[in-house]
Amino acid sequence: MDLHGFLKALARRWPTVAICLVLATGAALAATYLSVPVYEARTQLFVATRSSDDSAQLNQGQSFSQARVQSYAAIVATRQITAPVVKKLRLRTTPEELASRITASAPLNTVLIDIAVRDTAPKRAARIANAVAERFSAVVERLETPTHNSSRTHSKKGRAGDGSATSPVSLGVTQEAVAPAHPVLPRPLLNLSVGLFGGLLLGAAAVALRETLDTTLKTSEALSEFTSLPGLGTIPYDRNAPRQPLVSADGHSKRAEAFRKLRTNLQFSQVDNPPRIILVTSSVPGEGKTNTAANLALSLAEVGISTCLVDGDLRRPCVASVFGLVQDAGLTSVLIGQVSIDDVMQQVEGRLSVLASGPVPPNPTELLASARMEEVLRELADTYEVVIVDTAPLLPVADTVGLASLAQGSLLVVRAARTSRDQVHTAAASLERVGARVLGTVFSMAPVPKGDRYGTYGRYGELPAPRASASEEEAGETASAADTSGAGQK
């Protein structure tokens, strides 16, 4: 999936990104307000050398302090510092836990040591920092004090003298720790930024995962590329289709224009050898094959082509209910020899005739693949210019496979973002195995692009009527009221 495809997937699955963003942001805010505030107290020490006023010795002592100060910072959080502090302040913690809350650093080219202590109580953090600084100073001076073996010497007067040693360095506090006014943790802005960024990453990852696992076809271009079959039409999704499956009542809607385009593409795609008997099928139920077959038949009859629509789905027939016709007698009645075709053929409107399925038989597969079915189709083809046969789905049952070899062409209906690639591949392969002629695909229930205002036009080249001004509307309402009152008086 390239970048353009990924961006389109993000736009298509924006609810997933929005949910992840809300969840991550909510988690960050919850973690911020549920966290215990942590305060940080800081103190600073200055390392000096005990030397004379000689400038050379002062420079030497400065260099000595800078060389040792990094080592001093490394022992601030050791046990010999923390254990006495815990005991002195009577802290309810261990020296190791206290050490984890102490940090020390020595800026380069300086003789300063910065000590920071974190605690949930600001005053206690300050007390611990000052105690650590005090204990640290004592430990460093003790470590730097040279040890000498005491030797007794006799002076000229015969009196003995003991040698003593002092530390060459001394540590002084340049800044005592005070109770901080504001906590250093949590950080609301940082947590919110992390939540927003993490939510976006989580949403993008979820979309990428869904796109990887989702094997359905999202566009008609992808369908044509996958099947190598011509895409003859794309039928937009219409939420009113279940209540109003036929487009004849709304002849200038996007859906009606899509079926007219399907009719035109079908006619021009087979100019040299136009099929007379066309099967309309799908991979699985619920892809809109019956809706496609019925409206394609209506569209053909609309331009004066004598058309017959046959309900060849003998397991779940729907054509009769779509047109409001009689279901009791139809194709199965003809196949078993009870009636003739003319006896059960029902006229809908114009040049469209409908042959309902009739009673549901116990052996639909055998009936549809029989020689009698072939005779019925030939008889219909001799009477009508085009015969459209609505059939059962290919994958659940074998009814359509036997019937496809009797037709002159087939249309494969694929539902957008619902039918998987494996289902489409298996359905197309089953038609090819029986030598069926697949005319192309119909991409049904496709999402309508946002900002498409094609539906605001009535006919080609016809602009919508201009909106009346406010004064004209008021005048029209007054005239309408007068006409209504006059009619009421009559």
UniProtKB/TrEMBL annotation:
Domain Polysaccharide chain length determinant N-terminal: 1-89
Keywords: ATP-binding, Cell inner membrane, Cell membrane, Kinase, Membrane, Nucleotide-binding, Transferase, Transmembrane, Transmembrane helix, Tyrosine-protein kinase
Chain residue ranges for the region called Disordered: 143-168, 455-490
EC assignment: 2.7.10.2
SUPFAM superfamilies: P-loop containing nucleoside triphosphate hydrolases
GO MF terms held by the record: ATP binding; non-membrane spanning protein tyrosine kinase activity
InterPro entries named in the record: AAA_dom (IPR025669), Bact_polysacc_biosynth/exp (IPR050445), LPS_length_determ_N (IPR003856), P-loop_NTPase (IPR027417), Wzc-like_C (IPR005702)
GO cellular component: plasma membrane
Annotated ranges, domain AAA: 276-405
Pfam families found in the cross-reference section: AAA_31 (PF13614), Wzz (PF02706)
Location within or outside the cell: Cell inner membrane
Gene3D superfamilies with a match to the protein in the record: P-loop containing nucleotide triphosphate hydrolases
Family the UniProt entry places it in: Belongs to the etk/wzc family.
Protein name listed in UniProt: non-specific protein-tyrosine kinase
Organism whose genome encodes this protein: Streptomyces naganishii JCM 4654
